[in-house]
Amino acid sequence: MQPMTEKTPVTVLTGYLGAGKTTLLNRILSEDHGKRYAVIVNEFGEVGIDNDLIVGADEEVFEMNNGCVCCTVRGDLIRVVSGLMKRQTQKTGRGFDAIIVETTGLADPGPVAQTFFVDEDVRAKTQLDSVTTVVDAKHLPLRLADSREAAEQIAFADQIILNKTDLVTEAELADVERMIRRLNPLAPIHRAQRSNVPLDLVLGRGSFDLARIEQIEPDFLNPGHGEPGHVHDEDCDHDHHGHDHGHDIEASGIRGVSLTTDKPLNGNRVTAWLNEVLQVQGPDILRAKGILDVAGEDRRLVFQAVHMILEGDFQGLWRDGADRSSRLVFIGRNLDEAKLRAGFEGCVA
C-alpha cells in the first residue's frame, strides 16, 4: 500500500475496438490480485461486468468484490478523477494502487494524457504512469490501412500489449512487430493471448517518470543489432510473403526519427531548440524522449514531451565510463528528419 503522500499512478489504456481492452479491464476488476485499482471507463455498459462481481453502486461508481472500483466518465475527466481521490480517502482511508483510464476505441489518447499535466489539483495527487495500447495481432495490418487512429494509438504508447498472438503465425507476428516498431521505436511490446499479460508488467511501470527512463530502457534508443527496435527501413517494407505493408504505415504519415551525437550540447541552445520545435510542430509531434549530455554538467538532462507539453530535468550522474552520447527520438506526423537533424546539430557546444 502506498502512503497517502505519494501520487497515485495513472495508466491511460487505449486500443482499437475489439483489440482486447475490455478483457483486460474485466481482469483488473475481478481478479484476486490483492490490489485496489480504480477503473474509469467511457461507457460502463461497454465493459459488460457481471453483476455478481459488484458489491454496491454509488451513482456512477461501482465497488467490486475484489476491492476495485469502476466508474464512468460522463462529462469532465478532471472532475471524475478529483471525485475518486476524495471518495477513496473518505471511505477507506487508503489510496488506490493505481487508476486506469480507458479511452474509447476511436479516441486519440493525447488529450487524456495531457489532463494529468494541466490540472494542478489532479497533478498534486496523481502521476501519469503510462499510455498503454492494446493491439490485435491478427487485424493490425487492416487497421493501419483504414484507420489513422490505430497508427496514432501505437505511436503514442509507452508500452504495447500485442494481443491475440495465438491467431497468427510466427512470421506474421514478426511482421506485425516490425510495423509497430516503425511507428514507435520506443515502446516495449508484451505478447499476450486473451489479454493475459501479468498486471504488474503493465501497471505501475513509471514510464513517465523522468528518473526512470534509462532504468526501464537501459538501451534507450540504442538497441543492439538484431534486437527489437533495431530497424533498417528496408527490413520493414516487405514481409515474408511479399506483401508490402510499408504504404499502410506511410499513409498515416507517422514515423519515429532518432538523433544521436557524441559531442556535448549547449544547454541553453538545446532548450530553446526543443521549445521551438514543439511550438511549431507540437500538434504533429505525438511523443518525444531524450537523454542529453550537456557541456559542463555531470548529470544527464532527461526530457520527454507530449504534443506541446515539455518536461525536462537533470537526473542522476553519468556513470563512470558510460557512453555520454546524447540520444533523442521524435515520434509524429510529417516530421522533417533533415531539418530536425540540422537543428539538433546546431545545439553542439
Describe what is shown at a glance:
With 349 residues, the chain is α/β, with parallel strands linked by helices. 34% of the residues lie in helices and 26% in strands. It contains 14 helices and 14 strands.
What does this structure look like?
The protein has helices spanning 21-30, 44-47, 77-92, 109-118, 120-125, 140-146, 148-156, 170-183, 199-202, 213-216, 233-237, 246-252, 267-281, 337-345, and strands at 8-15, 37-41, 54-58, 61-64, 69-72, 98-102, 126-136, 159-163, 189-191, 254-261, 285-292, 299-306, 309-317, 326-333. The chain is of the alpha/beta class and 349 residues long. The strands form 2 sheets. A 9-stranded mixed β-sheet has the order 3-4-5-2-6-1-7-8-9, sandwiched between helices. A 5-stranded antiparallel β-sheet has the order 10-14-11-12-13, sandwiched between helices. The longest helix is centred in the N-terminal third of the chain and has 16 residues, at 77-92. The N and C termini lie far apart (46 Å). Mean pLDDT is 80; it is low at 221-244.
